[in-house]
């Protein structure tokens, strides 16, 4: 990984080291979480990307804009490794810059929701998360119980991939990537 890959691309919106929303092979327990995120993140918490759909891909999923919800995890880079992590994820997701014709994914800023814990028992929402606390962003905790949306980087399918998915893709009902699928090699969000 070169230093040139460690900063946001020109034309990207200001980030102030935004957290990342992941929904596929970067989820806790999935192969790319261990390869790319171990030791580089803190504050992992279940999250939901509204106004999005999840499609099955060749061993990894694609999220696109749509009328559903995608379930995943919001995570924050360990202080001092943000640029390294951003470069690693851009490389993994084959993101070459905003609107680049060879992008597999586009890195975009979206608002994600952090579901609050209900007092009615222990749901699966806390698994792998940071409990009821929020995620640390820029030195401040955001997204505690009952918090509003949090801005985050999300890798959505690039335009050509999105067109293909809309015409012949396999939608994942419920917007939740199922773990334990046969690996198709290191890949995606």
TrEMBL record:
Residues 118-137 have a biased composition (Gly residues). Residues 20-117 form the Gamma-glutamylcyclotransferase AIG2-like domain. It holds the Pfam family GGACT. Residues 116-142, 168-189 are annotated as: Disordered. InterPro entries: AIG2-like_dom, GGCT-like, GGCT-like_sf. This is Gamma-glutamylcyclotransferase AIG2-like domain-containing protein. The lineage of its organism: Bacteria, Bacillati, Actinomycetota, Actinomycetes, Kitasatosporales.
């Amino acid at each position: 990984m070169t230093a040139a890959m460690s900063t946001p691309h020109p034309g990207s919106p200001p980030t102030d080291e935004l957290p990342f929303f992941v929904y596929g092979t970067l989820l806790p327990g999935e192969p790319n979480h261990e390869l790319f995120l171990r030791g580089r993140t803190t504050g992992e918490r279940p999250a939901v990307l509204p106004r999005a759909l999840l499609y099955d891909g060749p061993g990894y999923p694609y999220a696109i804009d749509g009328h559903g919800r995608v379930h995943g995890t919001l995570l924050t880079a360990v202080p001092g490794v943000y640029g390294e992590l951003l470069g690693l994820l851009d490389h993994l997701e084959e993101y070459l810059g905003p609107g680049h014709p060879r992008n597999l994914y586009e890195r975009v800023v979206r608002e994600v929701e952090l579901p609050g814990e209900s007092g009615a028992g222990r749901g699966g929402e806390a698994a792998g998360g940071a409990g009821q606390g929020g995620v640390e962003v820029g030195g401040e905790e955001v997204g505690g119980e009952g918090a509003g949306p949090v801005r985050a980087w999300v890798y959505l399918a690039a335009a050509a991939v999105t067109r293909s998915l809309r015409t012949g893709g396999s939608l994942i009902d419920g917007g939740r990537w199922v773990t334990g699928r046969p690996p198709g090699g290191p890949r995606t969000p």
